[in-house]
Amino acid sequence: MASKHKPLTNSLINASDEIHDYSCSVCKDNNLNIEAKYFCGDCSKYYCDKCLIFHAKIHQRHVVLGRKYVAKWMGHGDALVTCDLHPPKVLELLCEDHAELCCSHCVPLNHRMCGSISLISDLAKGIHKMTDFKQLPANVTHVGARLNQVSEARKKNQNSLKTSGSSILTKIKSLRFSLNKVLDELKKRTVEQMDSVLADLNESLQKDIDHCDLLQDQLKALLDTVEYQEK
User: Fold this and answer.
1) DSSP assigned state of 22
2) 98-107 confidence digits (pLDDT tens)
3) H/E/C letters for each residue in 78-91?
């Protein structure tokens, strides 16, 4: 399919180098592309040399970081997204052949034969006038509301789960108490029955022992009588 955008030329590659990793926030608001050399953490804004002068007059107590501390700038303010393959280069191009965002270093390496590479800034021109863009706040609000509903539903489920867990735990403890009571009663009855059986057996055995003793005494007496008569 033929692309509606012009192929990437040497001039476009050179132009892409003009896109800075960090652009001055004030100049950017005035449609100027000036490289930022400072970052203010209090304002979460980037400043060039000229804009920093005005910023310093108004906000004398703000902490400003220079390029020496550029590592601390990452993740703050309106910095462009950097390329994972070639940091700290920024993603300023779109290869429509691969539907992939890339930086100027990616083009000669991975997209040399691609015929549809354009600047993201060119593709984004007029985006504020598009119907989809105008509907974006309403759509975001709607999605946010739905997420809140889902979150609230999950919280209710979470509370219900805790309540159910507590109820089940209470039932388990009650069941265990009942089982322990039954087992204690069973143990008591078993011990009583065992003691009764052992007592009966012991009585029977004692009778046998007493009878044996009696027979031994009678035999001894008989033996003594026989020996006496022989004399």
Assistant:
1) S
2) 999 998 889 8
3) CCCCECCCCCCCEC
